[in-house]
């Protein structure tokens, strides 16, 4: 018998139990170390996601066969480091942005990594970066906005207010301006200005992915800061197309019909002034005046005149007649019923709408399509 086996057999029962437990513990430790070493290392692909965006990204990754991991209660998406490039390509193919967006911009979590002994200048730079990231995240929550980036210029405090430089901000959107809803540009400008001390909305510049300045050009009433005629027509046509295609898809089935819409809108900004008078006035004051005269006439007796000087002359009209005179006048002052109205005619009235419809052969019974 080998010496090791002989020594093991000579051990007491307690020693054998301790030795066995130690061997099992070592085996378990080696197993878990191998498991951890072989587990994939995940890297965060994008954070700060809303549930709808997370669902779209996970569906695209499942379709591409790429594993992922949800973090931060579903607001962050992580993939294996080896699959990071493939995941970005797959998401980009589905029109989902994963770079340069609000989710990648660091916010106030930068202060969680603040090093001890940082200078005042470093703290100011960190605060500015954190504020830019938080504003970009808020802008990213606006419907239609993708890949928002914010750059702030925050001047130093000056002793004299008239010599202080104003704060300014530049917002870069990763999407065209015609994808935004009405009034969204003005809302983004207000959101940015109210997030920075001393920043006025007029000192905010917003630019879309095509390089078009959306703010402060125009009044911000439209999706593109007032918007051009072409952008407004494309936005309106796209909304009409989406509604009709969704209805046809539910009625006929998917991929059975397709609609194309071309709109001609009136984008003239006009003001209409109207002045109207009522047919009848409104009585304000009424005045009534009454004049009455009553009297009895007497016979003339030998008065000097023609009757006494010319013989046989008979005066007519004289006599003992009675008088009863009455005059009544009524005067009414009417107020002028006048209506003055000023109407700002809204832009976007439809002048003409062309709709083209193409149907599948299975729907039309052999016809290739129809147009309207």
TrEMBL record:
Annotated transmembrane regions: 17-37
Region of interest called Disordered, as start-end residue ranges on this chain: 290-327
Pfam families reported for this sequence: YscJ_FliF, YscJ_FliF_C
Tagged with keyword Protein biosynthesis: no
Location of the Flagellar M-ring N-terminal domain: 39-214
Example of a GO MF term: cytoskeletal motor activity
GO process annotations (BP): bacterial-type flagellum-dependent cell motility
Membrane topology of the entry: Multi-pass membrane protein
Keywords: Bacterial flagellum, Cell membrane, Cell projection, Cilium, Flagellum, Membrane, Transmembrane, Transmembrane helix
Top-rank taxon, per record: Bacteria
One Gene Ontology cellular component: plasma membrane
Residue span(s) of domain Flagellar M-ring C-terminal: 248-361
Biased amino acid composition, Gly residues: 295-305
PANTHER family xrefs: FLAGELLAR M-RING PROTEIN
Similarity remark: Belongs to the FliF family.
Name of the protein this chain belongs to: Flagellar M-ring protein FliF
Organism for this UniProt entry: uncultured Solirubrobacteraceae bacterium
Source taxonomy: Bacteria, Bacillati, Actinomycetota, Thermoleophilia, Solirubrobacterales
